[in-house]
Known about the structure:
This is WD repeat and SOCS box containing 1. The protein is mainly β. The chain has helices spanning 18-28, 31-48, and strands spanning 3-7, 12-17, 57-60, 65-72, 96-102, 106-111, 117-122, 128-133, 140-145, 150-154, 160-165, 172-177, 183-188, 192-197. The strands form 4 sheets. The chain has a 4-stranded antiparallel beta sheet with strand order 4-5-6-7, with no helix packed on it.
Amino acid sequence: GSYFAWSQGHRIVKLVPWSQCLNNFLLHGTKNVANSISTRLARQNSDSGQKNKPCEHIIDCGDIVWSLAFGSSVPEKQSRCVNIEWHRFKFGQDQLLLATGLNNGRIKIWDVYTGKLLLNLMDHTEVVRDLTFAPDGSLILVSASRDKTLRVWDLKDDGNMMKVLRGHQNWVYGCAFSPDSSILCSVGASKAVVAAILV
């Protein structure tokens, strides 16, 4: 609830602090609802002890953006990788990431607080239509593509790909995790819905 991301389908993604969105809403929207939300967010921000005020970032992804997803880390959730001694990135408790799915099949992972590019995942051969993070804080990312596959990435293992799921006969449009992160569902062309158990 700390940032809002949007893209008009071009190369640019705008990251805006949610409090700034609420302030704009206060100027143009329903004040009673906005005031209660604003008060709650202010209390959350003061409780979390953030020293730096969140700032807006404009990110150039280098290609047409098709999908966006936020992910955050839970320190207790370890990487599923066996060799966890060496990693380029150590994701902390307050880490917030933005994944962008691009027209060229790439997925770029950004640090929301700094706007810096962290990882460039390159394995899809077509447009990345959808992205979703596992809700358990493990930083497992799933991408759905027009190349008829879903790919499962472990961002705590430097973005290494864990699995390729090939259950669709046509483009894959969307994917979503169950609340406990154990089941992944995807939808594709020809009205196909596929479910997979991720263990």
